[in-house]
Design a protein that fits this description.
Blueprint: E1 2-6, H1 14-24, E2 31-35, H2 39-52, E3 56-59, E4 73-74, H3 76-81, E5 86-90, E6 93-97, H4 100-109, E7 118-122, H5 126-137, E8 142-147, H6 150-164, E9 168-172, E10 185-188, E11 213-216, H7 225-232, E12 236-238, H8 240-256, H9 262-272
Helix pairs in contact: 1-9, 4-5, 4-8, 5-6, 8-9
Length: about 280
């Protein structure tokens, strides 16, 4: 068994995608989404993974940081980033890993090189902090982190610079976001736009250069209001489903030892979303 711990998880298509890929490769595996509403319940759930016989588990919002003290060990990426988005269970030990940023880097580089990009990221939670560090490692020239919480934004900016040497700064999120001049890549790393609410991301689109690349991490729906507006303005766009496919392929291989074909995952996630 495999699965996900997070809150909320109902709209995430990851279980249908993984189950379809397990079936394609003839694996008697299953993926279970688990809605965990408190840190106390998170601790109980993590302790139960070994006796229940799980082989691995994904970690999503809001538990990517809180899960770390509950694990037996973490890899170098988690140590650098300070968040885990999945675990392997090896010889009874829970090992934390993070490939959130690696997934988004692969998805973006299908559309445009990251080298030299000046990035503005909206949000800097567990996934956002991983993406910020990985974008810097991949060659971004500068990052601006826009968050409502100053302590969070400044801490993640400091982490980016400490681990990569790339300059990163915090910008307060107060009402409509004005994107700094010279930005070449704008990313929504929040849950704004997710089904079923489809909340718009409050960006002043007059400050977004039409020649920039816009990335949305939301996986359901594929086309969010943020994504649709960026596409209408002529920006290059990268959707969250592409990011999900890239990171899920890596997790699948770590869990099963089987190297999957990308088209199998692309087909599975499209079917899961009813496309």
């Amino acid at each position: 068994m495999t699965g996900m711990l997070g809150h909320p998880v109902a709209e995430n298509p990851i279980d249908r995608m993984f189950d379809a890929v397990f079936a394609h490769y003839g694996l008697a595996w299953q993926f279970w989404k688990n809605d965990i509403g408190s840190e106390a319940d998170l601790a109980l759930a993590v302790r139960a993974l070994r006796p229940l016989g799980y082989a691995g588990m994904c970690i999503t919002v809001p538990w990517k940081v809180a899960v770390i003290p509950l694990l037996d060990a973490v890899d170098a990426d988690v140590q650098a980033i300070g968040a885990a988005n999945y675990m392997t269970i090896e010889n009874g030990r829970l090992i934390g890993h993070n490939n959130d940023g690696k997934g988004v880097v692969k998805a973006i580089e299908k559309v445009t090189p990251l080298a030299g990009q000046r990035v503005v990221m909206l949000g800097a939670g567990g996934a956002g902090r991983a993406m910020a560090v990985e974008l810097a490692w991949a060659g971004a020239a500068h990052l601006t982190l826009v968050t409502r919480r100053r302590d969070q934004g400044e801490e993640v900016a400091a982490t980016v610079t400490r681990t990569s040497g790339v300059p990163a700064v915090w910008q307060p999120w107060d009402g409509e976001v004005n994107v700094p001049a010279g930005t070449t890549l704008l990313m929504n790393a929040t849950h704004l736009g997710c089904a079923p609410d489809l909340e718009p991301v409050p960006v002043n689109w007059a400050t977004v250069d039409a020649g920039s690349t816009v990335v949305d991490v939301i996986t359901n729906p594929r086309v969010t209001p943020f994504f649709a507006t960026a596409r209408e303005r002529g920006c290059r766009v990268v959707d969250g489903v592409e990011m999900l496919v890239q990171l899920a392929m890596h997790i699948f291989e770590r869990w099963t030892g089987v190297r999957p074909e990308e088209q199998v995952f692309q087909r599975a996630v499209a079917e899961a979303l009813g496309e």
